[in-house]
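Hey L., structure's done. Input below.
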Amino acid sequence: MSPPTAWPFPRWIAHRGAGTLAPENTLAAFELGYRHGWRAFECDVKLSADGVPFLLHDATLERTTNGRGRAGERSWAELATLDAGSWHSPAYAGEPLLRLDRLVDWALPRDVRLNLEIKPTPGTEALTGAAVAQAADALWRRHGAGAAGGPPWPLLTSFQPAALQAAMTACPHLPRGLLLDRLWPGCWAVARSLGCVAVVLNHRLWTRALLQEQHAAGYRTLAYTVNEAQRAEQLLSWGLDAVITDRIDALGPGSNIDQNQCI
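Output:
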């Protein structure tokens, strides 16, 4: 079986908005990535204590905000007061955490594609998977998704099968992808059982043979986080569908690699 033809993502996806050039998962990061010519972005989505989907990678707040403790134990009203930019650089002081709805309202009018990684607070995998899927469904439909000429759905990914299972149960029409940082026993069977359209691997796991095998199984193939030009070029030459990278200033749309890999 060949990979599905209905695939709206370009070959370049910016990691967490703008890689390391702006505070990750903030609107400032997506705006910077967009100004650099990027039109597809990966980001991390979790839930506040009162069920608001927002963007944050870590379970805790210390690394990327001036808050403390587990993010999922704070209400959105509390989270909205935090500074999510000063940790990166003074230029971004005061940049707030980003709600999913605000990102979608920014992205879809610009024809931007989004890969939403479901990032549950530990112990809330099913709750988060279902809630993120339901929120995404409502937000994309608000912009016309599901109708002729509407924007393509997001790609929902997760390292947590329970989160993807809940997302599939809640909104089976939303495309899903299994994230893998190692090839654990039974991972491909789990991807099949979850109806995944894509598999997203740590780039070190990909070989030419494995990539061909997964294409033959019907999956789109993505790699994270590819920051070296030589590796990106190698993966694309093997037929990889999309590279997720921090290097939005050196790789990506319009780069020499992109021009060399035109198809």
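The chain has one domain: 12-60+99-260. Strands lie at 12-15, 40-47, 53-55, 113-118, 155-158, 176-180, 198-202, 220-224, 242-245.

-- N.
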